[in-house]
Amino acid sequence: MSKTFKIWISIAVVYVAFFVWYTDLGGKLEPEEIEVFMDRLQQNSEADDTVYTEEEIKVREAFRSNLLKFMEADTGRQFIMVNILDMNENPGNVQGAEPGETADQLMGRYMEHMYPELLKRASHPVFMGNAVNMVMDVVGIEGAERWDRAALMRYKSRRTILEIATNPKMRGKHIFKIAALEKTIAYPVETVLYLSDLRLLLALVLIILGLILQNRVKQ
């Protein structure tokens, strides 16, 4: 076996291993999986001792209905969650946090639990940024003239986000996020053009590395 062949075999093994980890090969959510996730949501809800108003109960029921549609329409593909955030300037005291913590500190508490769950499922931020001006164009939305930051979060699949959302370990952590925000919009999109996909970037890096090593071997 030549040295050049060994180089490209090694590179192929590295790429295939990453691709398998980074890509959900399980396909679309099966009806049985959807039922399991809905049951977990119900169990988490029953374990929540928070007292909700009638309006809040309606909002939670609407969320469950929307989530069910999201699962039933699964394509098995990765998606990006678009998050637009307006931070709460005066979040007040939150149970489980130190008195007087800022919105950023509260969001940090939420994300310190969120990041490990994301990363071990090949999900991660792809963009974060702070607003530098008020909205330049807004149509048909009241109170949407001001936002503080935006973030794009890559999820390996819909299965992945549901594994995180229904994980009992995350129960009670969402309160930090809610307290940190004045308002927010979050919606999922499936990519049509995504040049920062790590599978593409890694392929380019490995090809360049392979060519460099191959050239050195031939010299």
- CATH topology of the domain at 78-189, by name, is Alpha-Beta Plaits
Largest sheet: 4 strands, antiparallel
Helix share, percent: 40-55%
Strand share of the residues? Answer: 5-15%
Number of helices: 7
Number of strands: 4
Overall form:
globular
**SSE string, helices as H and strands as E:** HHHEHEEHHEH
Uncertain runs are none
Arithmetic mean pLDDT: 92
Describe what this molecule looks like in 3D:
- The chain is of the alpha+beta class.
- The protein has a domain at 78-189: 2-Layer Sandwich (Alpha-Beta Plaits).
- It has helices spanning 3-22, 31-47, 54-72, 103-119, 158-165, 174-180, 198-218, and strands at residues 79-87, 124-130, 149-155, 181-189.
- Helix 1 (3-22) packs antiparallel against helix 7 (198-218), helix 2 (31-47) packs antiparallel against helix 3 and helix 4 (103-119) crosses helix 6 (174-180).
Write the layout of secondary structure elements.
Blueprint (H helix, E strand, L loop, with lengths): L2 H20 L8 H17 L6 H19 L6 E9 L15 H17 L4 E7 L18 E7 L2 H8 L8 H7 E9 L8 H21 L1
Antiparallel strand pairs: 1-3, 1-4, 2-3
Helix pairs in contact: 1-7, 2-3, 4-6
Task: Give the key terms.
Alpha-Beta Plaits; four-stranded antiparallel β-sheet; 219 residues; alpha+beta; 50% helix
Summed up:
With 219 residues, this protein is of the alpha+beta class. The chain is 50% helix and 15% strand. The longest helix has 21 residues, at 198-218.
